[in-house]
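Q: My labmate handed me this sequence with no annotations at all. I'd like to see what the chain might look like in three dimensions before we decide whether it's worth expressing. Could you predict it?
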Amino acid sequence: MLTCSVHPLPYHANPADYFAAIRHAPGAVLLDSGRPTADRGRYDLLSAWPLEQLAVLPDESGGDFLQRLRDNLTRLGEAALPLDLPFAGGLIGYLSYDFGRHLEHLPSLAQDDLQLPDARFGLYDWALINDHQLKTSQLVFHPTLIDSERQRLIALFSQPAVETNEPFKLKAPMSADLSADEYRHALERIQDYIQAGDCYQVNFAQRFRAECAGDPWAAYCALRAACPTPFSGFQSLPDGGAVLSLSPERFVKVSERHVETRPIKGTRPRGQNVAEDAANAAELLASPKDRAENLMIVDLLRNDLGRTCRIGSVRVPELFSLESYPNVHHLVSSVTGELADDRDALDLIAGSFPGGSITGAPKIRAMQIIDELEPTRRGLYCGSLLYLDVRGEMDSSIAIRSLLVKDGQVCCWGGGGIVADSEWQAEYQESITKVKVLLDTLQNL
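A: Here is what I predict for the chain of 445 residues:
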């Protein structure tokens, strides 16, 4: 097997320093661990100028699109890495929440007013990778990349990037699509379904939006400073728009055929002082409602992973851990497994997408109710940003705390899991609390 070549660069803790050099290149993409402030992520991954750009067609089945992705990885060709790095060339992109429609039969009640392709990937034969554990920045070149292109990229990243970004501005404050009364009515409908035995939990979200102007990258830089998270990302879109994600949540990771998912279910705001902050965290850890919701999703994910993992390999090594971020505390668990011999990372996506932590349980019925009660399609929100390399290594996020800049407007979503004893006022407030730091940051640009 051929081996990737690696070229060391000066280490930069903030990947924005290097991304500025390719910001306006076709297919520019950054998967960002939120350093130097966030402390959980290890790697940043950035690239541009993909060999192919692959979007799912409106009537294409999920299986056919995932096979197209597989075929492109095969075309690029397997390669080894001389160092312990996560990406040897391959696919980087997003799956929108609505990619689930290509995998399952779902109604089409919610309006598709954003017209975002349900999935979009680039096939990349190079990447710049920051390893924050070893404090290295390195260019990784797939063996098929021609030498002149290697030299061009080395020269590009060896000189200071010229910042030419125009600022980003909202033309009006972000406003919710739903009134408080409409939100209350939707939650009552969900609880009617729960009482009728249709479902146990439904994740319900509301959308905020405003007209905007300027460079989405400027918005992203401000947002990552205000809310650094380990599964952040920026993906430029062909029309000048962009996907901006400040997600704290992993979807699924595959490394040497070992699978891990880390669902978040349970949220409290950070306190105004140390004592209040500690009290909020303790309340979350002790909350029977939040623990029951978290356990419900863990059970759902055990079932999802069981579709593609070796029988008997699915485990729950971590249950009800506390993770704290600039704006909220979260309750997080971990489910692991080993891929079955005849399955790969794309089979895992097909069997478990979208993530159970942002649908509800049982999953398909919850998704039907979401489509009925949320007036517009989610698009990117609750989808996934991910990479999948030619060795089969994959990591992916759940695209919560995420924004879409497209066609002169910016959209952002906030939501939460609704159960039988949810109080609509508390859930309404939580959906705002989760994105308040993002909305406030954009407002103050």
